[in-house]
Design a protein that fits this description.
The complex is a heterodimer of chains A (594) and B (138). Chain A has 594 residues and is an alpha+beta fold. Chain A is 65% helix and 14% strand. Chain A has helices at residues 2-72, 78-98, 103-133, 138-236, 255-261, 265-268, 279-295, 343-389, 395-426, 437-447, 449-455, 473-489, 529-535, 552-562, 588-593, and strands at 240-244, 250-253, 299-308, 313-325, 332-341, 434-436, 458-462, 468-470, 498-505, 514-520, 566-572, 576-583. Chain A has a five-stranded antiparallel β-sheet, sandwiched between helices. Classes of the chains: A alpha+beta (594), B alpha/beta (138). Chain B: This is Response regulatory domain-containing protein.
Chain lengths: 594, 138
């Protein structure tokens, strides 16, 4: 924009300057014409004045010739008279023509012509009389002198009028010349000014152009240098680094790649890398990479295997890639990716996952397979009791049988609990419904009614801030049941147990996650890290004065963590305990997709 | 009273207890025992064939067994022609909800599911539900 206006402005300047020069020419030619016309008028007037002078001198010649002849009677004196007679009409005719545009002068000239004619007639009369009488008619001479005086006066008037005209013409001509001078001067000045401006503008434009060019040059060289530094940096990274164009084609690998794969740039460039990745990882990698390129979202968790040239072994790598974005548009300009060898960790993790799965299966199978023998023992115990009832049995048989039944019951309980744990591991279905907490807590409270009645415990419910939770109902009930029953079971001996159950949205982290909090005024614990671990451990118990399986808090923790949340505990010995469950936000969109 | 009940379970103790229970409740004249699905099918073939002497009216079937499991037993049984002639009630005995779900996900000729262990109440309920205290054909 700025550049364009700079180009346009000199052009406008040029046009204006040319117009001004044209106008100067026009003004000059107009004024010159006027000057020439004025000069012609002045010449004309001058000519008239000359002619008038001549007219007077002709009349005087005629007068002088007459006087000489009359005094000397020598006819030689008549020559000037004859010359004057001949010249006067032509001179008069010229005067008439010269003042053709002036009516007043024409009138005066006519008067002059009559006076001149009369004067010449009188001279002719005088001469004729002298020829006849050799005397002079004095009366005639007086008449001649009067005519001569009149002609002289007319001539003076004519000359005065012409001189007046001349002065007018001179003044007009002077004014014209002055005006032309001023106009031409002003316009020339303006043209000079414009030319200066245009030159200045041109200079300025050239400067701006040069600056822009210099800037571009500097930037290009800076970019080149920055690119070189960037590449140098990428080369110095111990990881395998690559870069790709925004369209997803790979255009650079650092030396570590070539060292590891033993391949060349041509082998890996563009989409050629697809031939060298582990075939089993091909599909997942392509999918993840295409998604990243399409959305501009970084790659963070992609894992795939690459063959190491040194021993032909495929090793696991973690692939991370981020788009470098254009500062102005935000569009991806270049992808930079790293492949980090995580082979050892990956194998370890796979082993761990396998062991975990085995353990889950073991717990499940054990709880299942132990059921049959314990049920059988129980049934056999019943059969034995029936058989023994037929005879009068020794006194301690009943006690023995009762103890055996007790042991069987505990065995069965443990198996039931194990089964519950195993079930927990197998459940993976995401919850769909929002649970009404008040109703659920009321349900649990009724289940725990005997415990509430026996302890006089009070439950304070505050779920107004978050009355509904999206969670698997069975699990949520199990969580609430365990926390409430613990709060009552581990009550302080000196006070009536009070339990507070609260829910509220997670503090301003933008997500829709929620916190479920259960606080009691019970025994409380001095919790070090080891006790914390034990508190939530499977079959771990921190108290032995009341019945407990060591399963409740393990289940609570497991349920919360399986759902993607976490649990924290605050406890003060002799004061009470607060369990805070951070429950993750539901993800309805993902579920709809699945 | 039914004529014959077939117990299919690999655990001899369970079989002993269940057989004793059935006899004490006078459920049937005869209680047959097979220790896996294969042997159970053999017995059915023998008893419910041409002569049809003592074909079981009720089969109590365990899920987990060596050689042939309860589910495999049912898959083969579904294809047998003798099924058309003899209305055999098959009750699957399960240890867990999961096992029951496993059975119900397939279209198997199972009349009902019972959670172990077998008790007098469960047997009484079975009889009233499916046999209406009537004597079966055989």
């Amino acid at each position: 924009m700025r550049f364009a206006s700079l180009v346009v402005r000199p052009a406008t300047g040029y046009v204006l300057a040319v117009l001004l020069v044209c106008s100067i020419g026009l003004v000059a030619s107009l004024n010159l014409n006027r000057l020439v016309a004025d000069e012609k008028m002045v010449d004309n007037t001058q000519e008239v004045l000359n002619r008038l002078g001549q007219s007077l001198s002709l009349l005087q010649d005629a007068e002088t010739g007459q006087r000489g002849y009359l005094l000397t009677a020598d006819t030689a004196f008549l020559a000037p008279l004859r010359r004057a007679r001949r010249a006067i009409p032509a001179n008069h005719q010229a005067l008439v023509q010269l003042t053709a545009d002036n009516a007043e002068q024409q009138l005066r000239l006519d008067t002059l012509r009559q006076l001149t004619a009369r004067r010449l007639d009188i001279v002719a009369g005088n001469l004729a009389y002298f020829g006849r009488a050799r005397a002079v008619d004095v009366a005639q001479l007086r008449q001649g002198k009067a005519a001569m005086d009149q002609a002289r006066a007319v001539l003076a008037r004519l000359a005065a009028a012409e001189r007046h005209l001349l002065a007018g013409h001179r003044a007009h001509s002077q004014r014209s010349a002055q005006r032309a001078l001023v106009l031409i001067g002003a316009r020339t000045g303006l043209a000079l000014l414009l030319s200066g401006l245009v030159i200045g503008l041109l200079h300025r434009t050239r400067q701006v152009r040069q600056a822009v060019q210099a800037d571009a040059d500097a930037r290009a060289s800076e970019a080149k240098e920055s690119r070189a530094r960037f590449r140098q940096l990428l080369e110095s990274i111990p990881n395998m680094v690559w870069t790709a164009q925004p369209n997803g084609l790979l255009d650079y690998y650092n030396q570590q790649w070539y060292d590891y794969t033993g391949l060349s740039f041509a082998d890996l460039a563009g989409i050629n890398w697809q031939h060298h990745i582990h075939p089993d990882d091909f599909a997942a990698t392509i999918t993840a990479w295409q998604h990243a390129v399409a959305t501009g979202e970084p790659l963070t968790t992609l894992r795939n295997r690459w063959k190491r040239a040194a021993n032909g072994e495929y090793r696991w790598h973690l692939v991370r890639a981020v788009p470098l974005r254009d500062e102005a548009t935000g569009a991806a300009r270049l992808w930079v990716g790293t492949n980090t060898d995580i082979h050892a960790q990956q194998l370890q993790q796979q082993e761990l996952e396998r062991v975990n799965a085995d353990l889950d299966t073991f717990v499940y199978t054990a709880s299942h397979d132990l059921k049959t023998p314990i049920y059988n023992i129980e049934a056999l115990l019943g059969a034995l009791r029936e058989e023994l009832a037929a005879w009068p049995a020794p006194a301690d048989v009943a006690t023995l049988l009762a103890l055996m039944q007790g042991a069987v019951d505990r065995f069965k309980d443990t198996i039931e609990q194990l089964t519950d744990v195993a079930k927990l591991q197998h459940q993976a279905e995401p919850p769909t419904a929002a649970i009404d907490l008040a109703a659920l807590v009321e349900h649990v409270r009724q289940d725990l009614q005997p415990l509430f009645a026996a302890t006089g415990g009070r439950l304070h419910l505050d779920v107004a801030a978050c009355p509904r939770l999206v969670f698997a109902e069975k699990n949520l009930r199990s969580v609430v049941y365990n926390l409430l029953s613990n709060a009552l079971k581990y009550r302080h001996p000196d006070r009536v147990p009070a339990v507070w159950l609260r829910t509220y949205p997670a503090p301003a982290d933008g997500s829709r996650s929620a916190v479920l909090e259960v606080e009691d005024n019970g025994l409380g614990l001095a919790l070090g890290p080891e006790q914390q671990r034990k508190l939530f451990g499977l079959f771990e118990r921190l108290h032995d004065h009341v019945e407990g399986s060591g399963l409740g808090l393990f289940m609570v923790k497991k349920i919360v963590e399986n759902a993607g949340g976490h649990i924290e505990v605050n406890s003060q010995l002799g004061q009470g305990t607060v369990f805070r469950l951070h429950l993750p936000a539901p993800q309805p969109v993902l579920r709809e997709k699945a | 009273m039914l004529s014959t009940v077939l117990l299919v379970d690999d655990d001899p103790t369970t079989n002993f207890i269940n057989e004793r229970l059935l006899r004490r409740l006078n459920v049937s004249h005869e209680v047959l025992v097979a220790t896996n699905g294969r042997l159970g099918l053999d017995l059915l073939a023998k008893r419910c064939g041409e002569e049809s002497v003592g074909c079981p009216a009720l089969v109590l079937l365990d899920m987990k067994m060596p050689v042939m499991s309860g589910l495999e037993f049912l898959e083969v049984f579904m294809q047998l022609p003798l099924r058309q002639q003899h209305p055999i009630v098959i009750v699957l005995l399960t240890s867990t909800q999961l096992e029951q779900d496993l059975g119900q996900h397939r279209h198997l000729p199972v009349t009902d599911y019972l959670t172990k262990p077998l008790t007098p109440e469960k047997i009484t309920h079975l009889l009233s539900q499916y046999f209406n205290n009537e004597h079966p054909l055989n």
